[in-house]
Design goal:
The protein has 489 residues and is of the alpha/beta class. It has a single domain, classed as 3-Layer(aba) Sandwich (Alkaline Phosphatase, subunit A). Helix content is 26%, strand content 19%. It is built from 11 helices and 15 strands. Strands 1, 2, 3, 4, 5, 6, 7, 8, 9, 10 and 11 form an 11-stranded mixed sheet that branches. A 4-stranded antiparallel sheet has the order 12-13-14-15, with helices on one face. The chain is globular and about 60 Å long.
Length: 489
Amino acid sequence: MRSKSILLSVLVALIALAGPAIAQDPGFAGAAPGHGKPNVVLVFMDNFGWGELGVYGGGILRGAPTPRIDTLASEGLRLLNFNVEAQCTPSRAAILTGRYALRTGNASIPIETPVYGLTQWEYTLAEMFSDVGYATGLFGKWHLGHTEGRYPTNQGFDQWYGIPNSSDESAWPDDTRYRPDSHPFAHAEYVMEARKGEEPQKLKIYDTEARILIDDEITDRAVDFMQRQTAADKPFFLFVPYTQTHMPVIPHPDFRGTTGNGDFADVLAQVDAYVGRLLDEVERLGITDNTIFIFSSDNGPDPTVPHQSFAGPWSGSYFTGREGSLRVPFIMRWPGRVPAGAVSNEIVHEMDLFPTLARIVGGMVPDDRIIDGVDQLEFFEGKQETSNREAVIVYVGSELYGVKWRNYKMMSKEIDRAFADPTRTYGVPLIYDLHTDPKEEHPLNSRWYYSGWVRWPAGQVLVDHIGSLKKEPPIRPGTQDPYEPVRGQ
C-alpha cells in the first residue's frame, strides 16, 4: 500500500540519520438535579486560525474585539498548544473517534472517492454519550459523509441540522459555468435536517444566500435544543460545528458593515456574538455550573485572499504540517472543576477529548481497536502541570510528514501553504526547536547538531506509530458498510 511504503521510507530516513468500559469520574458531584451529569457544549469553528481571538492576540488586531469568547477564556482553561489534523474531514473524524483520521479512512477531504466518511463500525463521541443516556445534537457542518448510512444521525446523533459537506460548494449554484449534470456527485449541496431513525430531508439549496444565513440558524437550533433537554431534565451533548470562517467569508446582514473593517472582521464579530448567545442561554437556563463549554476549531487558516484567517505567530496554512495548520484555539470552561484563568503550552490533541469526556460521564472507550487519544482530566483540572501527551504524528492527507515531540518537530516532508506550493521531501529529516524557532524557518542553523539527540525520542514515536498501522491496518477510503476490521501482524 502506498501509505505504508511512505511510512517505511520515513523509518529508513531515521535509521540513516542515526548511523472496555470506564467508570464515571468519582470526583464529579453533579450540581444539576435529576441526572447529575454535566452537559457538554462543543463549539467547533471552520478554518479558524490560532490568532483570531483577542485572548490569542487577535480581536482588535483583526478589526473586531471578541469580548464574549475572551471572557469565556478567563473563566476556564486556555491552551496554547492544542493540536488538530491539517484538513476539515480528518479533523472531524479524529475528534469524534479519538483516533488518527488515517485509521478511519478519512485522512483527506474526499478526493479519491465520493463515498467517504465514517464506517458504522467506528464508535463516535455521540454514540458514547447516547449510550450513557445523553441527548445528542449536531447543528452545523458535518463533512463526514453525504451518502446513505453516513449522516450524523447514523453516527449517534439524535438530531441534525446543517450541511453534509463544505461551504465552498455554496458558490456552485450561483455560477453560470456550473454543470450539475456532469457527474452524479456534482449536484448542489443542500441544507438538511434529520432525526435518528429517519431519512435525512433536503430543506433548501445551499447557495450563497443560504451560506450567509446558516450560522444564525444553527445558533437558533442549538439554543432550542438546550431548552428542550433542560426542560426534560436530560443531560445533553451539543456539537456546534459552525460553517464560518470557511470560504466564502460573508457576514450575516445583521453584522455587515458593523466593524467598518471589512467582511472578515464583521464575521469575527458575528462569531463572538453567536457564541455569546449560546453562553447566555446556558446562563439563563441555570446550567452554567453543570455544563462543560468548549470552544475550538477544526484546523488552521485558509490562505486564500480575502478569506484567509490568522494563525498568529505560527507559519503555514491548513493542508500543511506547519504549526499554523496544527495549532488552533482551545478554551474549556467547567466551573468548580477546571481552574479559571489557567493557561498552558502543554501538547494536547483533539483526539484526547474522547477518553477524557468518556471518563467524566462514565462512557465507554472501545478496547477492540487502537484509540490514540489520552485521558487529560487531571491536567484539565489543574491537578498536574504536565499533559499526558508528549507527541503528535503529523499527517497531511495520508502522507506522513513527521512528528512533533515536546517543543521539537522532526519533519521529513514540508509544504508552506495549501494549494499553490510544492511538497519538499528530505532524505534526512529536519529538526526544529519551536521555542527558539516558532515560525519553523531555521532548521539548518549553525548549531543544528546540538539538537541531533531529538531523533531518538521523536523517532521512537514514529516507529511505534508505524508498528500500530501494521497491527491494525487503516480502513481504506471509500470502504462501504458493513465493515469488519482486518488485523495485521
